[in-house]
């Protein structure tokens, strides 16, 4: 029996030894982080441009205005709602102006009264001038006296002055008419440009003022509506000072809305603001959306991927040819997967639980990735930040598996 037990134990040990050895080797194997090598997928426009920088921001209209009032008063009529399209110069609201209408009527009556007084003054002046001519003729004949002639001359001068006074009074009255008419025009709120009302800020019968009223923010002032030109939309985003040097004028970009992530839009860098925010160490950047549609709305969250120039596209985002030549596939791997050994670029590929040493040829760097020209193919799993204990063909443990 003792010998039989020993024989059985020896047989069991011999059978389990390979599995135990493999288990121990696996436990002792280095644990690694991995990532999968990817390939750039051609966008709907046919571009395989590599990303240079990614930033997030909000969609804004290049032209947007908080339309306010020029005079205070109570709103009599509103001719818009959210979404109403307006034309430049169109009256979109009116302020009550019955008191100004009365002033206009009074000013017009003053003009009529002045014109009547002017007619009387002209008639009196003409009569005084004729009387003066008669007195001068009589003076030549010695029939009248010097005192009478002097009185006639004074009367004629007074009549002429009265005519000038009446003319001045008419000019003043007409000026008051123009002032009152301008006040009535100021009661009309007109659209500053063609656009769409994106926000309604007041209702009929509310009292408004050019300087705002209680309960209205100081920024809005006397605004009753916000109008935006939805034909020119752009993304307002912020870029770190360290990354601004990567951007160039009219740089192509791809805009993705958070609400429609599967529908990218063509973009172009329009402006890098001339000043930075030293508190945040950022620079504001504006990216024009070249092909907006009804899905793109102001204040939407958007992501902008700046791309390297070229790749068969002009600076306005349109294709240079009607049938552009196909772009070669671009394979990207994380920069953390590439190490240098003996002056060569090395990547460690995980295959069937073992690490395989590969010599790779790298290309341009893009954000946190690097282009792989050869050595590693798309879909393969590479080790990130390879630990020093890796050996070619050695067992490795993948974190999280």
Task: Tag the structure with descriptive keywords.
OB fold (Dihydrolipoamide Acetyltransferase, E2P), alpha+beta, 33% strand, 401 residues, six-stranded antiparallel β-barrel, six-stranded mixed β-sheet, Elongation Factor Tu (Ef-tu), domain 3, single chain, 24 strands
Draw up the topology in text.
Elements: H1 2-28, E1 31-36, E2 38-39, E3 51-61, E4 64-67, E5 73-78, E6 85-86, E7 91-95, H2 98-141, H3 146-186, E8 188-190, E9 195-200, E10 207-208, E11 225-228, E12 233-240, E13 252-257, E14 265-277, E15 282-289, E16 301-307, E17 331-334, E18 338-341, E19 344-351, E20 354-359, E21 361-366, E22 369-374, E23 381-384, E24 397-398
Parallel strand pairs: 1-24
Antiparallel strand pairs: 1-23, 2-17, 3-12, 3-16, 4-11, 5-7, 5-10, 6-9, 7-8, 9-11, 12-15, 13-14, 13-16, 14-15, 17-22, 18-19, 19-20, 19-23, 21-22
Short recap of the structure:
By secondary structure, this protein is of the alpha+beta class.
End-to-end span in angstroms? 45 Å
Q: Quick one: how many beta strands?
A: 24
Q: Decide which structural class fits the backbone.
A: alpha+beta
Question: How much strand?
Answer: 25-35%
Mean pLDDT rating: 84
Output the number of helix runs: 3
Helix amount: 25-40%
Gross morphology is rod-shaped
Write down the Rg. Answer: 43 Å
* Largest sheet report: 6 strands, mixed
Q: Regions with pLDDT < 50 over 5+ consecutive residues? A: 311-324
User: How do the helices and strands follow one another from N- to C-terminus?
Assistant: HEEEEEEEHHEEEEEEEEEEEEEEEEE
């Amino acid at each position: 029996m003792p010998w039989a037990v020993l024989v059985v134990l020896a047989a069991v040990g011999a059978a389990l030894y390979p599995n135990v050895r493999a288990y121990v080797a696996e436990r002792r194997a280095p644990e690694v982080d991995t990532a999968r090598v990817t390939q750039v997928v051609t966008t709907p426009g046919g571009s395989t441009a590599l990303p240079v920088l990614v930033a997030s921001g909000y969609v804004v209209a290049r032209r947007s205005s908080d339309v306010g009032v020029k005079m205070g008063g109570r709103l009599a009529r509103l001719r818009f709602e959210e979404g109403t399209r307006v034309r430049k110069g169109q009256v979109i609201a009116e302020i009550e102006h019955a008191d100004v209408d009365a002033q206009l009527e009074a000013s017009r009556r003053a003009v009529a009264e002045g014109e009547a007084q002017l007619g009387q003054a002209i008639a009196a002046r003409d009569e005084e001038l004729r009387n003066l001519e008669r007195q001068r003729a009589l003076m030549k004949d010695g029939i009248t006296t010097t005192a009478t002639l002097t009185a006639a001359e004074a009367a004629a001068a007074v009549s002429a002055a009265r005519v000038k006074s009446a003319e001045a009074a008419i000019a003043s009255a007409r000026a008051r008419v123009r002032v009152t008419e301008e006040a009535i025009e100021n009661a009309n709120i007109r659209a500053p440009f063609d656009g769409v009302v994106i926000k309604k800020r007041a209702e009929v019968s509310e009292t408004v003022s050019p300087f705002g009223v209680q309960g209205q923010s100081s920024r809005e002032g006397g605004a009753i509506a916000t109008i935006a030109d939805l034909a020119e939309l752009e993304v307002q985003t912020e870029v770190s000072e360290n990354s601004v040097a990567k951007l160039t004028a009219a740089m192509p970009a791809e805009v993705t809305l958070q609400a429609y992530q599967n529908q990218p839009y063509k973009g172009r860098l329009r402006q890098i603001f001339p000043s930075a925010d030293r508190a945040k160490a950022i620079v504001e950047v504006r990216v024009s959306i070249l092909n907006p549609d009804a899905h793109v709305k102001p204040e939407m969250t958007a992501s902008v991927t700046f791309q390297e120039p070229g790749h068969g596209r002009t600076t306005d985002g349109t294709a240079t040819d009607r049938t552009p030549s196909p772009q070669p596939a671009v394979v990207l791997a994380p920069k953390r997967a590439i190490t240098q050994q003996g002056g060569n670029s090395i990547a460690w590929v995980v295959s069937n639980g073992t690490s395989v040493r590969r010599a790779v040829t790298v290309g341009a760097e893009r954000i946190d990735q690097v282009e792989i020209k050869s050595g590693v193919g798309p879909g393969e799993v590479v080790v990130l930040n390879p630990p020093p204990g890796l050996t070619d063909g050695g067992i490795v443990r993948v974190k999280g598996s």
